[in-house]
Amino acid sequence: MLQSKAYVKKTKQGKVVKVVREHYLRDDIYCGVPFCKVCDVTNARLSSTASTILVVDTNVVLHQIDLLENPAIDDVVVLSVVLEEVKNKNLSVYNRIRALCENRLRRFFVFSNENHKDTYVKVQAGESPNDRNDRAIRVAAQWYQNHLGSAVRVLLITNDRENKKKAINSGISAETVESYVKLLGQPALLDLIVQPQSEDVIMEDAEDMRPAKRKIIYPEHKPMSEITSGLHRGIYHQGKLRVNRYNPFEAYVGSESIGDEIIVYGRTNMNRAFDGDIVAVELLPHDQWQQEKSLAMANDDDEEEDDVHLAPSSADDAPRVTNLSQVSDGDKNSLPTRPSGRVVGIIKRNWHSYCGSLDPMPMPAGEGGIAHALFVSKDRRIPKIRIQTRQLGNLLDKRIIVAVVLIENDIDSRPFSSQVLACLPPLPWSVSAEDMANPIRQDLRHLRVFSVDPPGCKDIDDALHCMLLPSGNFEVGVHIADVTNFVHPGTPLDDEASQRGTSVYLVERRIDMLPKPLTEDICSLRSDVERLAFSVIWEMTPEAEIISTRYTKSIIKSCAALSYVEAQARMDDSRLVDPLTTDLRNMNALAKIMRHRRIDRGALTLASAEVKFQIDTETHDPLDIGMYQIREANQMIEEFMLAANISVAKKILDHFPPTSLLRRHPSPTKEMLEPLIQTAAAVGLSLDVSSSKALADSLDRAVGEDPYFNKLIRILATRCMTQAVYFCSGDLSPPEFFHYGLAAPVYTHFTSPIRRYADVIVHRLLAASLGICRLPDIFQERPRLTSIADNLNYRHKNAQMASRASVELHTLIYFRNRPTDTEARILKIRSNGFIVFVPKYGIEGPVYLMPRGGKGGGEWIIDEQQQKIKKVNGEASYGVLQSVRIHMEVVEPQPNRPKLELTLI
């Protein structure tokens, strides 16, 4: 059926033209209900056992999206008229509701009511667009009920008083959001409901409530149109807000437009922005710019007073315990000032789940038992937040310790769905005759293949072999689990892995990207079993020069799964001369040459404070803690994995220049390296940072009598680096592909497809470059590949943060009943103390020299050039990299917020 409408309009040039709009209506649009006897049910999305089907109006979607995303809400019809309205009003909510409708695990169905001949409605005389859309929603709800009859109840969900009244008068069942949720009998869902503010909206049991006047604490955010114009004119500056981990009242916004970081002091100037938000910043007048060092480390007691969740009245309310009155005017002027600013708008929120505890507020409970409380995040960079809840009694003094790390870092730890598990081959699995006969797969079972991994590793991605050739050269192979033989594009298994992005390694737990049957059995390259692999094989001279490279799908049978300790012990034991040990020694000799050559090119040898726990198998509590020890065996495996990744990167880029997934490490800016240069200068070192090669050479020369000194300098250098990221090759120019840390023109990840989805993509690219299979459709759409790269970067960063948080949590548990005295090194000077690193335990934290407000602690001044903090009376002085004795003890200054307190002895 064709509906047409003709009208005339005047153009900008003054001409009058006739416009004809045609609207096609159909009678074959199906309802999405699987038990419908009229419609095609092939692609039905709703439940076959549903007793109630919900039809939601526009405002319910706009304001209650958090509730709709809860798995308790299902069998929902989303009308096309609603989708269009939501898209016009809030693109973020639109994307979320579209994701729900496209999620195979949720029962949300989009019904094209605007194109169905029985549900399309015309605008009536004098009717507003909003009223017409509300009527269209009621008509669609009525059609569903008539269409399905008594088999199911169709319920319109609306908080609009007039819409509900008209629906009921027309014989349509209708409920408010709150009344429907109460019918579900799940009180916890009530806390997800956003209370409406309009007088035209129904508030259950609160007809006489009037909103109380509230004190305006924060300035209004600028409208996006004004922000866009201001950015274009250079009035505002865009960047990511990073809150200081040691002082939540101090934040930084990296701005490309001014080529420097803008410092944001105090909650008011942060203006409701959270760590990680993309914000628009306005620079303060120059006379309000402050010295970066003028802020102290904030202690747990350094909070705003009763209205902490609101903000200080000005930026100057941020806690400051330094007394700079002892510094001469000349010294003050010598302290470099940095641009200071305030947030005027939030361009993109970094929302994710936060973990913490609740503190009750002294306010009377409202209607329905609604109580007020302050949410206190475990992460002090997140300000206290005022919330309303009906479950305060159940939530006080509780924190779900097990889930803290996962929730806070947006880690999906849910069990794999039945749809995902259905994609796996049945167990027990073994290499089949078809695999053996496959011409694309080479039989390499005759090779002496082995793996070297951390102790207890079950998800073994990689194995190697090293064979002496008659020519005197070596054949060296890196064999990687052939995950893509089991994970096929577009399947629920592939979709799940794509979303998870990476496996997450916690102290006592692993959150898998792929189901355990794949990670620990089918794909894992365990010893003495035949497995499918994707192999990179080189011919190398004894000087580790690559003569040739070939790539092949293969079948291998590992002869040994060694730990790093076992491999090292074999190489070190001169009595052992067996073939496997000889292979290890030959590989190690090649790896040393390769490593030396890579460092000569400018690759950096950095250091990090990796911590290792010994865990009690019954209680899962840590029994011991110490720094992770790196051996030659570790470096040997690392070298060949790097070589394989570089070889594969070159191969896929040659074949697919616009759509290869690569990994780059941008060069750090001069500003990023400034803290390292300053610290080195304070201890008499001059670092050349003009290139990665120059920095590497400078770090090699940074040695002293203290054997730990060089590692400290390398740890500080690591802190100054940018983050390595995945990217689509078509999005950047070749010079931007460079990996600074590895001094490699091109690099990717190929060697861990069990643990990283990036490697799965690269395996598909490599297979297509060899003609083994066709390139999946996704590689024809560069924006989709870019989107996947962005998600991989997000998931990789979150996995790192979760791992660190897991270490911090277990460190607290370990020291809970173990007060300890130990040696520490000063990493950074602050105005009321310093930040130290504890080599023995790999722990970093603040040491305060003064109590809050500086009372009773004496006066301290900072020597910026020498990186020292000293008492005015000269009794004590401390400098960067200096060794100090500290006492470590777990304290709990506030309920449910234990912390490891470091104090100077």
Automatic annotation (TrEMBL):
Region (Disordered): 294-340
Domain RNB stretches: 441-772
SMART domains: PINc, RNB
Presence of keyword Lipid biosynthesis: no
Residue ranges of every copy of the PIN domain listed in the record: 52-165
Entry GO MF terms: endonuclease activity; exoribonuclease II activity; RNA binding
InterPro entries: NA-bd_OB-fold, PIN-like_dom_sf, PIN_dom, RNase_II/R, RNase_II/R_CS, RNR_Ribonuclease, Rrp44_CSD1, RRP44_S1
Keywords: Exosome, Hydrolase, Nucleus, rRNA processing
UniProt GO BP: nuclear mRNA surveillance of mRNA 3'-end processing; rRNA catabolic process; rRNA processing
UniProt GO cellular component terms: cytoplasmic exosome (RNase complex); nuclear exosome (RNase complex)
Subcellular localization: Nucleus
Gene3D superfamilies: 2.40.50.690, 2.40.50.700, 5'-nuclease (3.40.50.1010), Nucleic acid-binding proteins (2.40.50.140)
Major localization class: nucleus
Homology family: Belongs to the RNR ribonuclease family.
The name this protein goes by in its record: Exosomal 3'-5' exoribonuclease complex, subunit Rrp44/Dis3
Species of the source: Handroanthus impetiginosus
Taxonomic lineage: Eukaryota, Viridiplantae, Streptophyta, Embryophyta, Tracheophyta
